[in-house]
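User: I'm new to structure prediction. If I give you an amino acid sequence, what do you actually give back? Let's try with this one:
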Amino acid sequence: MDVEAWNSDLMEDMLPKTIFLICCMVIGLFGNGFTLLIYCVKMKMSDERYFIPVLATVDLFAATICPILGVMESRMIVTFNNASVCKIFWAAASFLTLMSVFVLAVIAIQRYLKVCGSVGSTMNIFWRRISLMICIVLSAAFAAPMIIFHSAVEITNVEKNLTGFQCARTNEEDETVVIIYGVILVLTILIIMTLLVVIYSKIALKLYRHYKSIEKHGNSMWIRQSDDHEMHTSDTLVTGSSDEHGSSKDYGLQEKEFKPQKIPKTKVDKDSKKTNITHKLTTMFMVITMFFILCYVPKVILLVMEGLYDGFWENMSDNLRHVLTLVNEIYIINNIINPFIYAFMDSRFQNESKNLFHCIKI
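Assistant: Good question. You get back a string of structure tokens that encode the predicted 3D arrangement of the chain. For your 362 residues, that looks like this:
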């Protein structure tokens, strides 16, 4: 038996993972591509949706690079001898994955300022750009070591007397450095997850109190001025007071006389509508964050187990390894699910999508 035959035997067990990754890539390409088309072409850039095209762009590339790397590792299990390709794809996949995480953290801070902050405490365009630059720098800083830590690693099958190559973490670096890096990476992700839970918990409490107040007081909580008439007061001098026959006597007193006067419509309704949009989009980002946490918890657990136990993957049974290998890729769902959330929760996205399909049919 040669290395190619050995690789073919191993590939059969990786088929479910390969199919899963290819499906994720196809869905991610179409979903995120369509999201960019709607938000960048059909809709004007707004403060509320500023980070959606950014997140969609990151997810588009992440849903392409990460599955390609996974498929290559699944199809070239012991024949991956190109060290440069291994390093580049690991660094790119790490950068895009972490970029998505950091952007979600920035979005959470923006929503907190909008919903829970004082009036005017929003994230202006300057700080939005600065926050994105920070996300890029942090992602690059965490991804750069992957170029050193990963390469085409030699693997030997003693029973079959064969030697192959895997795209995996090398054993040449100082183990202490690798452990420190892994601890910092895991702690960073856990801190961000905790931050997201705390921020959105406060936002959820704020929204709950807001809607409970509306339910309790109804529209009376809004000082609404409509196109109808608003009663206002004017001072008139009373020259007398009426006796029992209706005659008046002069006491030199003033009384209030209410007269209806038509006034222009104020911005109260507009502000109310804007507030509702803010709350709906905030709820949408809460759902996106919830799926992010659900998708990344298995990945973080496996990273911790891999760091705690030497030979974690090598010492388990083949069936368990195949299952956990697939579970290890679940995080990619985070990069493909957002377009479905937009379609269900952003009414403007729904309308623009319908208009686009209507134009295509015509």
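You can read the tokens as a compact description of the fold. Here is one thing that stands out. The two ends are 60 Å apart (CA to CA).
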